[in-house]
Specification:
Layout lengths: L1 H10 L4 E4 L4 E3 L4 E4 L6 H15 L8 H19 L8 H18 L11 E3 L2 E3 L6 E3 L11 E2 L3
Parallel strand pairs: 1-3
Antiparallel strand pairs: 2-3, 4-5, 5-6, 6-7
Helix pairs in contact: 2-3, 3-4
């Protein structure tokens, strides 16, 4: 992992790499934060994924679907980066990660009244195509997908 971080730091001097309590890309500080663990194989995959977010210029998203799209793009870019570092990412691992976002999106987009799936109206509201019910969701992707009814 240290070797990969050194190579990435050299190749991408505009991206900072710092130890953190989890893996994530911070566009505000142009920093990829990473965990130090017991040489878990998935750490290098996740580091490349977060680096991919940086290289793709991912910053903010306005809708849940846009976030899922950004995650897919970052995993696709990470697979390309792997070629330069003689690393192979397990496709099942990628799909498991993407499934967590798909599940999150599915829960948030399900109408609490009739269980129909719908699209977002704005960053924090959905409206059902079927029953016209409106519900509010948190703008945070890190919290449970609570759905607060706005209309009856």
């Amino acid at each position: 992992m240290k070797n990969l971080i050194a190579k990435l730091s050299y190749r991408y001097p505009n991206i900072n790499f710092k130890i953190g309590d989890k893996f994530y890309w911070s566009p505000e500080s142009s920093t990829v934060f990473y965990e130090i663990s017991d040489s878990n194989q998935t750490d290098s995959w996740t580091l490349l994924h977060e680096t991919a977010h940086a290289l793709l210029g991912h910053k903010n998203y306005k809708t849940d679907l846009e976030l899922v799209k950004m995650e897919l793009e970052a995993w696709s870019k990470a697979k390309l980066l792997c070629r330069d570092y003689d690393i192979t990412i397990d496709n099942d691992y990628i799909e498991d990660c993407l499934d967590s976002y798909r599940d999150w999106l599915h829960q948030r987009s399900t109408c609490p009244m009739c269980n129909m799936r719908s699209l977002q109206n704005d960053s924090s509201h959905y409206q059902c195509f079927n029953c016209k019910h409106i519900w509010k969701v948190s703008t945070s992707r890190m919290c449970r997908p609570y759905r607060l009814s706005v209309t009856k």
